[in-house]
Amino acid sequence: MRQAVMSKPGVIEFGQVEVPLPAAGQVQIRVQRIGVCGSDIHVFHGKHPFVTYPLIQGHEFAGVVEAVGKGVDHVSVGDKVTATPQEVCGTCPPCRRGQYNACEVLKVRGFQAPGCAQDLFVTEADKIVKLPDDFLPEQGVFVEPVAVAAHSTGQAGDLKGKNVVVSGAGTIGNFVAQACKCRGANKVLIADISDYRLDIAGQVGIDAVCNVKNQLLADAVKQEFGADGFE
Q: Are residues 115 and 218 in the same domain?
């Protein structure tokens, strides 16, 4: 099968490798789409502080189950899936508290562990996230970044009826702003220095935008929210 390896910053080499087979408790996935996030770009340019080369990128992806190992019964061949990218020990104090993001030996696929930039990818069954049958691969690849937005806005508490400012209109910032709207925010203002990103934010229904190169954020807040300001 094909595999893409970044041998050094700026160089991705494609080669043929053996097909990985699922062991007990594992799932083999045929990768259909891979997302490229800001961290991937940092890796490409040699500016990510927590990776070594060579490495296999790919942590945001969508695919179809190709095979399952012994003992796997909650997913089946043909299911549309993605998977969480973290590899954790499950035994350190943060893991025992359910704070897997703070695992003492945390690795993330595509960075400290091999990613899914290959035709077939094997991962543990408990990391699998099933996708709706009508999901396109182009939608499934966004599940991981959307989950970031859903979690972060959930940490903010009740947003119903509140005014919210989001700083940064990249993919994550855009999803955060949309998640605020989904959680009932009264009005959302998103700020950035890129008219391109701000235009996309407007297209997806964000109430107001501010290019801080051209307007002070404080002035935009007063203009959009009046004396009430934002939470």
A: no
Q: Report pLDDT digits (tens) over 163-183.
A: 999 999 999 999 999 999 999
Question: Of 110, 141, 172, which one is at a domain's C-terminal end?
Answer: 141
Tokens 């099933």 appear where?
130
